[in-house]
Write a structure and sequence with these properties.
Layout lengths: L19 H8 L4 E2 L1 E6 L5 E6 L2 E6 L2 E8 L5 H6 L3 E5 L5 H8 L11 E3 L5 E3 L4 E13 L2 E13 L6 E3 L2 E3 L7
Antiparallel strand pairs: 1-11, 2-3, 2-6, 4-5, 5-10, 6-9, 7-8, 9-10, 11-12
Length: about 180
Amino acid sequence: MSSPPPLSSPRSPSVTAFDPRAFRQTLGAFATGIAVVAAEAADGTLIGMTMSSFNSVSLDPPLVLFSVARSALSLPALRTAAAYGISVLAHDQQDLSGRFARAQGEKWSGVDHLRGHGGAPLLAGAAAHLECVPHAIHDGGDHEVFIARVVAHRSAAAEPLIFHAGRYRTLAAVAG
């Protein structure tokens, strides 16, 4: 059995510069589900964005988090939204992941959705829905970290859409 390669860090004397691309590749080793966070803007416009930066924070109170790049066009609307709808995408919703990953365009045109708490949109056919209200927003470097309190939730018996190493993946059954 061979030893793992040495770890590098921004403080390591052997590393002269921190490589953001290599860092992103390292983070890609962590498999994630894909969620679409959506809201209704103050002017009534529906906004939504694909993200893999979604996690649970607390069971009591029920809190989740997601992070949004400071450069995101929908960031101002998310900061002031009264509610968020989080749709955890199912394995057959890769097209929706791509659609909501785009910065602009008619994301909602022809997309089947329902309205949750506070009018926040939820995508039909998702593996899970979480209806949330704002709890806190924190500095996260080039992102803002949103913490939301879950007010309602439900899940379906659907396989989730998985992202790993820059590609969509499927789950494999483990013999046990």
